[in-house]
C-alpha cells in the first residue's frame, strides 16, 4: 500500500469548497435548507476561512431566473464577507440549449451573480460564456461549460482557449496545481465516469492529458463520495463532488436503488447531501475532505494529492484484498409481506467483511439447473462516514419462490471488483 502523502497543516495557503448539483427550486422542499447547511458546514470546517467556492454545475433546477435569484440570496446571506464563486453551468437544469437561448442563460448567470464574483477572472468575455479562468491567492481555477449535452461536447474555440491557458500556466508556474471544473465527469476517470451518453465526456481528454498538474472536479452523477474510486489518477487527477441535493448510484432497482435513467436513485435519496472541502499547503499539496452535510460529519479519511500521480491510481485494485464471509456467517429465508402487502420471501444473511467496504452483493437462486433469480443488492456503504458502522445483517426481497429444492448463493463484491467466496445454502421451499 502506498504511503499517504504529507500535508502541512500549519501552512495552508488556499482553501475552497467544491460542491455540485445544488438544484435550488424555490419550491416547498428542502433544497434551500440543504444549500444553507452545506455552506455553513464548509465555512465552519474551514477554520482559516474560505477563499473561494467552486460550483460544479446544476446550481438551479429548472432554468428559472427566480431560482438563481434565490441561489444568490442564500449565498450572500451565508458568505459574508463575499467569498468569490467560480462556477460552470450544468445541463438542462441551468441552461436552455441552442445558440441564442444558451447565450442568454450564460449571460443571465453572469449578470445575476454580480461583478464581485468575477474580480479574479483573467478573461471577462469568456466568463460571460460561463468559461472561467480565475486566479485567487495565486491559485488557478478554470471552469468550462459544454455547448451540447447529447453528446457532451465543448466548442473548438473553448478547447483552444483551455489549451492555451494550461500551456501558459505550465510554462510560467510549473509547480502550481490547476483546478478544473466541468459538470460532467471526464470519461474513464473516477467513480461513475463510464456511463457514457449524457453522463460523461471524452471531449476534453486529449487537452487535459498533457498536463499532470490538473485536478478535475466533476458532478452530474450524484454518486456517493464514500467510494474510494471517487478519486482517480491517470494522466491527471480526477475527483467526484457528489451532490448537495440528492444521491444516485449505479445499481438497482432490485436492491437499495430505484431506476434513474442510467443511474439509480438510492432509497431515501433526499436524505443525503455531500461535497468537498479542499485545502492547499505551501508545498502545493492538496487535502480533500469529504463531507456529509446531511449528518454534519466527515466521510472516511481525507485524500492528500501531492502533485504526483502515484497515490490514487487504478493499481489500488491490485493491493486490495477480496471481501470475505466470516466462518460463522449464516444465510436464511423467511416469509413475509412486501411494501404492497403481497406475500413474499426475504433472503437474510450476515454481511461480509472487507479491508475497506463491500460495495454490493450478487445473489443467485437456482433450481434444477435453471437460474431463477439474479439480483444485485447494493450495500449500505453510502449511508456511513465510517465503514465500521455498516449494517451487520443484510435483507433482500426475493419475491416468489417455486416449491421444491433451491440453491441460494451470495457473493460479496468490493469497489475494485474483488469477490468473496460465495456464501451458499440449499433450501426446501
CATH 4th-level superfamily of the largest domain: Metallo-dependent phosphatases
* Spatial shape: globular
Radius of gyration: 23 Å
Mean pLDDT: 91
What is the CA-CA span between the terminal residues?
46 Å
Query: What is the beta-strand fraction?
Result: 25-35%
CATH class of the largest domain, named Alpha Beta
Structural class: alpha+beta
Please state the second-level CATH architecture of the largest domain: 4-Layer Sandwich
Major beta-sheet overview: 7 strands, mixed
The percent of residues in helical segments reads 10-25%
CATH topology of the largest domain: Purple Acid Phosphatase, chain A, domain 2
Contiguous helical run count: 7
Domain tally: 2
Number of strands: 27
Low-confidence stretches: 253-262
List the helices and strands and how they pair.
Elements: E1 12-19, H1 31-45, E2 52-56, H2 65-78, E3 85-88, H3 99-113, H4 124-127, E4 132-136, E5 139-143, E6 148-149, E7 152-153, H5 156-172, E8 178-181, E9 185-186, E10 200-201, H6 205-208, E11 214-218, E12 231-233, E13 237-240, E14 248-249, E15 257-260, E16 263-266, E17 274-281, E18 286-292, E19 297-298, E20 303-305, H7 316-319, E21 331-337, E22 343-350, E23 358-367, E24 370-378, E25 393-399, E26 405-414, E27 423-428
Parallel strand pairs: 1-2, 2-3, 5-8, 8-11, 9-10, 11-13
Antiparallel strand pairs: 1-17, 4-5, 6-7, 12-13, 14-16, 15-16, 17-18, 18-19, 18-20, 21-22, 22-25, 23-24, 23-26, 26-27
Helix pairs in contact: 1-2, 2-3
Amino acid at each position: 500500500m502506498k504511503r499517504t502523502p504529507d500535508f502541512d497543516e500549519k501552512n495552508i495557503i488556499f482553501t475552497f469548497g467544491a460542491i455540485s448539483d445544488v438544484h435550488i427550486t424555490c419550491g416547498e422542499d428542502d433544497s434551500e435548507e440543504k444549500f444553507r447547511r452545506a455552506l455553513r458546514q464548509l465555512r465552519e470546517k474551514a477554520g482559516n476561512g474560505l477563499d473561494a467556492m467552486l460550483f460544479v454545475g446544476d446550481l438551479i433546477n429548472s432554468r428559472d431566473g427566480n431560482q438563481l435569484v434565490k441561489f444568490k440570496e442564500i449565498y450572500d446571506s451565508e458568505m459574508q464577507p463575499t467569498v468569490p464563486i467560480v462556477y460552470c453551468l450544468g445541463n438542462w437544469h441551468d441552461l436552455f440549449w441552442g445558440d441564442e437561448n444558451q447565450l442568454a442563460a450564460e449571460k443571465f448567470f453572469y449578470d445575476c451573480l454580480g461583478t464581485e464574483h468575477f474580480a479574479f477572472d483573467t478573461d471577462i468575455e469568456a466568463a460571460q460564456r460561463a468559461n472561467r479562468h480565475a486566479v485567487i491567492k495565486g491559485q488557478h481555477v478554470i471552469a468550462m461549460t459544454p455547448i451540447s449535452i447529447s453528446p457532451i461536447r465543448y466548442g473548438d474555440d473553448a478547447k483552444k482557449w483551455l489549451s492555451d491557458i494550461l500551456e501558459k500556466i505550465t510554462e510560467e508556474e510549473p509547480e502550481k496545481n490547476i483546478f478544473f471544473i466541468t459538470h460532467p465527469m471526464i470519461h474513464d476517470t473516477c467513480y461513475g465516469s463510464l456511463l457514457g451518453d449524457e453522463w460523461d465526456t471524452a471531449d476534453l481528454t486529449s487537452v487535459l492529458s498533457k498536463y499532470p498538474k490538473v485536478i478535475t472536479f466533476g458532478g452530474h452523477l450524484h454518486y456517493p463520495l464514500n467510494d474510494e474510486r471517487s478519486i482517480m489518477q491517470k494522466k491527471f487527477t480526477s475527483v467526484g463532488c457528489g451532490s448537495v441535493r440528492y444521491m444516485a448510484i449505479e445499481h438497482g432497482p432490485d436492491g437499495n436503488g430505484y431506476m434513474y435513467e442510467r443511474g439509480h436513485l438510492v432509497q431515501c435519496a433526499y436524505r443525503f447531501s455531500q461535497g468537498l472541502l479542499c485545502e492547499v499547503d505551501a508545498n502545493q499539496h492538496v487535502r480533500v475532505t469529504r463531507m456529509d452535510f446531511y449528518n454534519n460529519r466527515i466521510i472516511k479519511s481525507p485524500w492528500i494529492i501531492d502533485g504526483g500521480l502515484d497515490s490514487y491510481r487504478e493499481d489500488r485494485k491490485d493491493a486490495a484484498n477480496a471481501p470475505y464471509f466470516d466462518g460463522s456467517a449464516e444465510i436464511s429465508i423467511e416469509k413475509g409481506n412486501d411494501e404492497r402487502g403481497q406475500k413474499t420471501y426475504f433472503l437474510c444473511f450476515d454481511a461480509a467483511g472487507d479491508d475497506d467496504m463491500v460495495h454490493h452483493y450478487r445473489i443467485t437462486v437456482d433450481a434444477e439447473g435453471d437460474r431463477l433469480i439474479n439480483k444485485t443488492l447494493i450495500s449500505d456503504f453510502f449511508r456511513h462516514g465510517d465503514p465500521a458502522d455498516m449494517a451487520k445483517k443484510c435483507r433482500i426481497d426475493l419475491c416468489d419462490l417455486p416449491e421444491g429444492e433451491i440453491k441460494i448463493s451470495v457473493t460479496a463484491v468490493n469497489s475494485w471488483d474483488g469477490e468473496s467466496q460465495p456464501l451458499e445454502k440449499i433450501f426446501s421451499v
